[in-house]
Design brief:
single chain; Aspartate Aminotransferase, domain 1; 2 domains
């Protein structure tokens, strides 16, 4: 599996970790990705971490200022209960089917801790978001990586074979970093077959980018998760809702599964700022969400067409980022872009010799960024090492 932000810091040791902790903002972002800062001004366009470039709704910020700060001296349990009820209402489920987390990161770690062991490990696609694999590795639990199939989509037949006997399958859909998704019908078929062949395996369906999916047949697995104790769906406010720095997400699942997760790790580490922000986000007009979806799709289509017109292929993105074959090492392209003020994503083995992940900024940012991409791609690619 790829070198993650956390394992990168662990590899460098305590001294470097101190540097990382004390660094700030964009410099910290560079260091965390293993990118040496280049002399000169900080990047002016940040396309590296799949954030909403417009941030959160104004009501979220207002709620944090007016409702959260007065509660700063109190523990968050009462507010967490209220937010859990609101999420349950949003998805048409019961309160017992919802567990909050500090971002979906906490949900992923909790699932890995609860459902994997030294004899029943983790299965995930290669590449996929690294949180579960990193945590399983930290605990000494086995990890099985499954190569992607055609179009860089999850190979469900190969996943099926690898998943038998696993403790947990991390099913990232849409998949970060490759941006592809699997239809609801194919996902349900995979889950049905797996549950028969390996009835003790739990599947964590990560839907962090759900709001950005546009392909026909893409569906949430929340209804199935509520009914099936071996399926958990994870969501976050970090992406479409623009709350990456506020840190709140949640899981939806069968009441027994949610209780098992909650018994190991509850909601005590979620701040009242995040809770009040989520409460406000759940009340924003649906038109605001739809506008964000349209904004992202337009900027995504523009940038993908720009690359395609120049002969560079991309995956079928169902997210707020894209994965593109730039016919040269990712590091080479990234450093060339960074010299002109555009920061894109880190390496993602085993595709680091040819592919890059580029987050979707505003249309104005992408129109400026493609000019930088033009310059970077005009340089002859160096011979691969």
């Amino acid at each position: 599996m790829s070198l993650s932000r956390r394992s990168f810091v662990q590899t460098l040791g305590v001294g470097a970790t101190g540097m990382w902790i004390t660094s700030r903002g964009r410099e910290a972002s560079l260091f965390a990705q293993g990118i040496q800062p280049i002399a000169g001004p900080a990047p002016s366009i940040i396309l590296s971490s799949n954030e909403n470039p417009l941030g959160c709704h104004k009501d979220v910020l207002s709620a944090i200022r007016t409702s959260a700060f007065p509660e700063a001296g109190r523990y968050p349990f009462a507010t967490a209960e209220e937010v859990s009820e609101l999420i349950a209402k949003k998805h048409g489920v019961k309160r017992e089917n919802v567990l909050l987390g500090s971002g979906s990161t906490q949900i992923l770690r909790t699932s890995t801790h609860v459902f994997t062991s030294k004899t029943a490990g983790l299965v995930a696609a290669i590449p996929a978001y690294e949180e579960c694999a990193d945590y399983a590795r930290l605990m000494g639990h086995p990890i099985t990586g499954v190569k992607l199939g055609a179009g860089l989509k999850m190979d469900l037949d190969a996943m099926q074979q690898a998943s038998k006997g696993a403790g947990l399958v991390f099913y990232c859909n849409p998949n970060n970093p490759v941006a592809t998704a699997v239809t609801g019908s194919d996902t349900r078929a995979y889950l049905t077959t797996l549950m028969k062949a390996s009835p003790n395996t739990t599947v964590l369906v990560d839907e962090a980018y759900f709001e950005y999916g546009t392909m026909p047949g893409y569906e949430t697995m929340i209804p199935l998760a509520v009914e099936n104790p071996r399926v958990v769906a994870a969501r976050t406010f970090s992406k479409c809702y623009g709350m990456a720095g506020i840190r709140i997400g949640y899981a939806v699942g069968h009441k027994d599964t949610i209780k098992k997760m909650a018994d190991w790790d509850g909601v005590g580490n979620i701040s009242v700022m995040a809770l009040q922000g989520a409460k406000a986000a759940l009340a924003v007009p649906e038109s605001w969400v739809k506008d964000e979806q349209k904004r992202n799709e337009a900027a995504r289509n523009f940038t993908q067409k720009w690359f395609a017109d120049r002969g560079y292929t991309h995956t079928d993105s169902q997210t707020n980022f894209m994965f593109i074959d730039v016919k040269r090492p990712a590091r080479e392209f990234r450093e060339a872009c960074l010299k002109e003020g555009v920061l894109i994503g880190r390496d993602f083995p085993p595709y680091e010799k040819s592919h890059v992940r580029i987050s979707i900024g505003t249309m104005e940012e992408m129109q400026k960024a493609v000019q930088v991409f033009e310059h970077a791609l005009a340089q002859p690619a160096k011979a691969a090492a």
